[in-house]
């Protein structure tokens, strides 16, 4: 039983890191695209940031669902 606890904590840390990386990748890709193709509203940064958030939330949902199934 004690061996299961660190694995679950590591899983939650991994989820948080994945969220951060996915969202940051969306933001930096959007900033890069806005630099390459300038527009009035920073549309690439906004849209890729939101896409990154939705992808990250989907990943969290999937990971938590898998953690619950493993119990």
Automatic annotation (TrEMBL):
The keyword Transmembrane helix appears for this protein: yes
InterPro entries (alphabetical): ATPase_put (IPR032820)
Domain of life of the organism encoding this protein: Bacteria
Residue ranges crossing the lipid bilayer per the database entry: 12-35, 41-61
Keywords from the named record: Membrane, Transmembrane, Transmembrane helix
Protein name stated in the entry: Putative F0F1-ATPase subunit (Ca2+/Mg2+ transporter)
Annotated organism of origin: Christiangramia gaetbulicola
